[in-house]
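README, section 4: Worked example with a bound small molecule

Sections 1 through 3 covered apo chains. Here we extend the same pipeline to holo records, where the ligand is supplied as SMILES alongside the sequence. The molecule in this example is nicotinamide-adenine-dinucleotide. Nothing else about the input changes; the structure line simply encodes the ligand pose together with the chain.
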Amino acid sequence: MSEQLQPVGVIGVGWVGLVTAACFAELGHQVVARDILSEKVEALSRGEVTIHEPGLEDLLRRNAERITFTTEMNELLEGARLLFVCVDTPPTYSGDADLSRVRAVVQELPEGSDHVLIMKSTVPAGTGESIRRDMPGLAYVSCPEFLKEGTAVEDFMHPDRVVVGSDPGDEGAAEAVEELYKPLGGEILRTDVASAEMIKLASNAFLATKISFINEIANVCEEVGADVGQVAQGMGLDSRIGSSFLRAGIGYGGSCFPKDVSALKMLAGNTGYHFQLLTAVIEVNELQKRRVVGKLEKHLGSLIGKRIALLGLAFKPDTDDMREASSLVLAARLQGEGAEVVAYDPVAAERAAGMLGSVEMANSAIEALDGADAAVLVTEWREFADLDWAAAGERMIRRLVVDGRNFLDPEALTGAGFEYEGIGRTVTSQPTANAS
Ligand SMILES: NC(=O)c1ccc[n+]([C@@H]2O[C@H](COP(=O)([O-])OP(=O)(O)OC[C@H]3O[C@@H](n4cnc5c(N)ncnc54)[C@H](O)[C@@H]3O)[C@@H](O)[C@H]2O)c1
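The generated complex, written as structure tokens:
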């Protein structure tokens, strides 16, 4: 059966590319995956998985014979006609999307190539049009990726929707892409290329807006004595609003939301349109992380010389991705206030260590809390909810928790003698047990 399926090429094997390669292999396709980093390609060829993503290791092991990792463009071009571009598009200094890696891929394609370039990387609207202008005759399809780190395999295999954008002349290429996705069963939406590109940016910007919105509501809740959890629940029951992305906390991070919101704002700005709402979304998100400092100061006074334990460093649980993680800003702010920062993360510690300079890295949550004046929950890893907080409290100088994700059980904590601060939660911050 697999002989009849089209081979698939993947360019760039980071979070999106590796998941794409593994999932198409699982569907029975032969996959050739190319990256420019030889050490990454060698590690993957040896069977080592380069990122932490639930279910990915199993998938790669099970389908090892169907996937070839290579640094060679020729091997990719010979191995597959349908080429998924999954290279990174980080922000430039100006906040626009940096398309240099995408451009590098296009420049490597031979003239008159009969390959189909399928853009999975998130790119500003207009990118496809300019690539087609530079490479007349190249078949081009926009197929933005919506997977979420932490549930990437699941999201790929069970998509809400698959967007396939093509312009006149490339209908056949778009149909070939549609065929690849049909077995997954999600709704397939056919659009033009510019609209597909906008769908991706608009979706991420909307979700980021929802997060900043509920964070502002949380801040108002703190002023008026309302509980943001109850407010979000009540709002979410309205089917026009929906309950997802209404969880207050210390703001969004990661490799996508910050850069995609900024890229959309800049894209609009470059056309002369000032996207005011996104300016506010970004600012609210930046300020939200910093509110933790005020919450600590409320209890501790000056932070000079205080030992603060950060629990969780990755930008979200179930990933070791540290790009634009809130922990980076928080650690720097706390150190700026004179605090001594110690941190623990179950999987991101190695990646984080190089980014966190003089932050002390602990080997466990308990080790991080030992001798700490306060704990700040930054990433909602399950193990922090399961932690024996009473035992941890015995080792802390002061039983104080700032729960940056509204993830812990405030009653259990105050019962164990902790002072508790959430984000917009109406729980008593005072301990109910008598603990020194
Ligand atoms: N990470 C996510 O959750 C996610 C979700 C949806 C969309 N996206 C988008 O997908 C794209 C990729 O994101 P990512 O997180 O996988 O990035 P990543 O940085 O993890 O991976 C990109 C990979 O591309 C490789 N690369 C760069 N230039 C190359 C070239 N010329 N040839 C071959 N390989 C090359 C890099 O070495 C790297 O391994 C971005 O545009 C991102 O915005 C990401």
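What to look for in the output: The CA atoms of residues 189 and 269 lie 28 Å apart. DSSP finds 18 helices and 14 strands in the chain.

Section 5 describes how to batch many such records.
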